[in-house]
Amino acid sequence: MTRPLTAVELRELADSLFTSSAFTELGAVAVCLGLAWLMVRLLRGTRAKPASVLFGRTVIDGVLFPVLALVLALAARSVLPATGVPLALFKLAIPVLVSLVVIRLTVRVLSAAFPSSRPMRLIERTVSWLAWIGVVLWVTGVMPMVMEELDEVSWKLGASRISLRNVVEGSLSAIVVLVLALWLSAVIEAQLIKGATNNLSIRKIAASATRALLLAIGMLLALSAAGIDLTALSVLGGALGVGVGFGLQRIAANYVSGFVILAENSLRIGDMVKVDNFEGRITDIRTRYTVIRSLGGRESIVPNEMLITSRVENASLADRCVLIATTVQVAYGTDVRALQTKVEAAVRAVPRVLGDPAPGMQLSGFGADGMDLTLNFWICDPENGQGNVKSDVNLAVLALFDAEGIQIPFPQRVVHTVAVEPKEAS
Predict the structure, then answer these.
(1) Which of 94, 183, 279, 317 sits at 20 to 30 Å (Cα–Cα) from 51?
(2) What is the mean pLDDT of the chain?
(3) pTM, full prediction
């Protein structure tokens, strides 16, 4: 970026924007933007792709477009003076493109790392405003005066002198370092998730560990960029250890439990589980919690410590097939042995019911109104629901009973009347 403009240069710049050479510069800037758009379009391809940091959702809302436009604009700025064209418009275009690169990088990285976080939206807007304000201050030449005033506001921290300017510059450097660390971790995590192994849990734990390591390194670099002595972290580490031991032990236990779950592979993404009377399918395993989605659409966020210390029913750990039972009652006098073969054949014909193990019917009891029959059958896709297939089996049995003329008994009661002889009159 060029140096800030003085008041005289600013007036000269305003006058030069209305000259004929300004149209030449405007055409050069337009060519740079057009070439950048074309290059990004060729690199991205014509097929619709999900939003990414480099390309965004469209061609111009990613990071690559302003970066290429900035590079081409810098090249054009170095070439134009040799042709006799004075530079005026490029003194505005270069800072604007730099600001656009900062905004696009911050917004895209934060959106990819925290897709549904409301505080990140506030940070994105704050960075955008600060970037544009910085461009205005830089172009108008006010930036050096602002920085000098910030440098005058200082205080002593131990043996070091820290000014407000150091804090601002260090904070900006820390934001850049953390954004780059988040971007790198997101890229590595995406590549790990697409890994060759079919074990999603192993890829998940590798991605989580990589992201935590990169963020830790990024935080150390950010603190160093902000002017904080890293030797002071030993004291902070001791205080943090005490805090974890007392106030943060449950949070730390959840993080440790998350890595244990992913490492031992006792719970996997896609398993059907039942935890604390909540049954559903595991959709995500985070380092602190696990998301379980019921077949009715409700989602439960379960702390990982609970999955380690409490009883968890996993219907998909060793075998995805589950047994489902339903009961029906027939009237006394029904030929149960002859009916058994027909019922088992009708249940076997229902979609999703497995033929091996084959469904079975048992005479489970003698009720007050009829004989109780229990129908057992197996399915291997419990994530698609169990109540719907149970209903299909009941409907198939009901159709069979109607075709065979088998009655489902109604409640019956026998009333005994006792005749009481009248007493003889005395």
Answers:
(1) 94
(2) 76
(3) 0.43
